Amino acid sequence: MKRLNGIHVLMVVSILIGPTLSKSRHVRSTVDDPDYVTVSTKYGDIKGRNYNVSDSLDLNVFLGIPYAKPPVGDLRLARPESVQPWTPNVYNATQHGAKCVQRILTGDPELEGVPFSEDCLFIDIYATRERVGARAKQPVMMYLHPGGFYGGTGAKYNFTNLALKGVVVVTVNFRLDMFGFLSTQDDVIPGNFGLLDAALALDFVKEIIGNFGGNPEDITLFGASSGAAMVSIFTLSPLTRGKFQK
């Protein structure tokens, strides 16, 4: 770990880890179906999966939560815009969102059945929740996946084990290849939309992560390969200054 301009940069080359969530008034088990849990946020309620880990601890997993409007039509090759609230509906976050459009080099059996789409700006959240009593807000770790800026998806990485260590973990999808990094080096297509996606995802996480038991003032960015490079860029970018701590 290196220190750069007062910010710790954590770069991870390879890691096998996973989810966690603490109890608060925002979390309520679904009485009619104990396999699910619902969390209230400013954007609306989010329904995720609930797994019993022990007599006192549950693991909550929320998949495919949108953080931006679909980057299609006028938003294709443009800056991302924040997602619109979905209230009064409950958002079903029990399945992975689509992978961003990308080059396919080899088949990935871990992601069979996960479709490609331009509508791909989603996050996954792994958290634990105490069944009895309250727990202090937990540190948050937001992961930026590898793939050389032209491939990959946050959906590939299951952070259950890491979450069980007392951390709320978030993985992020961002636009890739031509859709994420094409530039004409002018105002027509300025480029770096994938970076702008991840920066907007960080804003979204800071807004809602407290509802999942995470501490929005204790966020660590980490990544592998090109994801680690993005973390380095964010330590210097004014778009993300002061929005994460490590």
TrEMBL record:
GO molecular function: hydrolase activity
Positions of the Carboxylesterase type B domain: 38-246
Known EC number: 3.1.1.-
Keyword entries, A-Z: Hydrolase, Signal
UniProt-listed Gene3D superfamilies: alpha/beta hydrolase
Signal peptide interval: 1-22
InterPro entries: AB_hydrolase_fold, CarbesteraseB, Carboxylesterase_B_AS, Type-B_Carboxylest/Lipase
Family statement drawn from the similarity comment of this UniProt entry: Belongs to the type-B carboxylesterase/lipase family.
Name of the protein: Carboxylic ester hydrolase
Organism whose genome encodes this protein: Elysia chlorotica (Eastern emerald elysia)
